[in-house]
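Input.
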Amino acid sequence: MNKIKIIYLTAISLFIVAILPMLTSGLTEQGVRWAVRRSVDIAFILFAFSFGASSLQLLTHSRLSKWLLQNRRYLGISFGISFLLHGSLIFLLARLYPEPLLTDLTDNVIYTGLIAFSLTFLMTISSNNAAVKLLGRNNWSRLHTIGGYYLLIMFSLTFLSKLAELQFWPYIILTLCLISLRIYKIIKQLTTTLHT
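Output.
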């Protein structure tokens, strides 16, 4: 598959699964909330694929892990598009139907969300060779590592707080798998370092 097609397929999926139902609902509150939820569903799956690619390759060396690793940049860009759309839809929901959304929002949720969207924006626009050259490989790597772990913590806290809700279990399982993969990679790297 041409790597850029991953982005096109993501855009099409977002339109069909999230945007089109919202538009056909006439921008009702239920329709906008549907789009908010579906956009973050797609975003999280793409995040898991991109952030877990190197760990999965280290563990399995499978065709799937190799493909994910080779396409990690485009999966990451697709995540960025999906997650930033999610943020835009939250803003739309707040403008059209401010209550009870604004009442339920705490300062902590607002600030952690703004940081998450800011990091996602920075990682998305820097997912190219020109940005690597401009920032330097080490600084570029720090940005994407810090951003990736921040988002992993944010998603983990969100999904693991919903253990009682059955519909979130696929995402909870994916979260636990992703955490396990990252821990495995860290241990593997530490072990390699200690033996060199």
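The chain has nine helices and no strands.
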